[in-house]
């Protein structure tokens, strides 16, 4: 049950635009840095780390695609990789 909930959450997060998330990062960072023992503070901390998780995932994804594209000769490559880019 918990694994299913996390899977659904991850599926929703994957669809979010990195550029839009990154624009929100300073807001959540500021909220996180001003501790309050509230549910709103807890959600701000989680949101801050979700945004950074998406950024890290996209960085790793892009680096792996670039490494693979360098190791496969152009004529054998079925197509160019689709990078996750900040819009």
Distance between the termini: 35 Å
User: How helical, in percent, are the residues?
Assistant: over 70%
Largest sheet: none
Total beta strands: 0
Structural class: mainly alpha
Anisotropy-based shape: elongated
Q: pLDDT average, as an integer? A: 87
Written description of the protein model:
The chain is mainly alpha-helical. The protein has 3 helices and no strands. Helix 2 runs antiparallel to helix 3 (39-71). The termini are far apart. The model has no long low-confidence stretch (mean pLDDT 87).
Task: Provide a concise account of the structure shown.
The protein has three helices and no strands. The chain has helices spanning 2-14, 18-33, 39-71.
List the helices and strands and how they pair.
Layout: H1 2-14, H2 18-33, H3 39-71
């Amino acid at each position: 049950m918990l694994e299913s909930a996390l899977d659904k959450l991850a599926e929703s997060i994957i669809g979010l635009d990195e550029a839009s998330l990154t624009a929100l990062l300073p807001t959540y960072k500021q909220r996180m840095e001003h501790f309050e023992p509230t549910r709103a503070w807890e959600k701000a901390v989680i949101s801050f780390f979700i945004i950074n998780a998406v950024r890290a995932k996209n960085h790793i994804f892009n680096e792996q695609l670039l490494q693979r594209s360098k190791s496969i000769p152009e004529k054998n490559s079925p197509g160019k990789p689709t990078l996750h880019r900040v819009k």
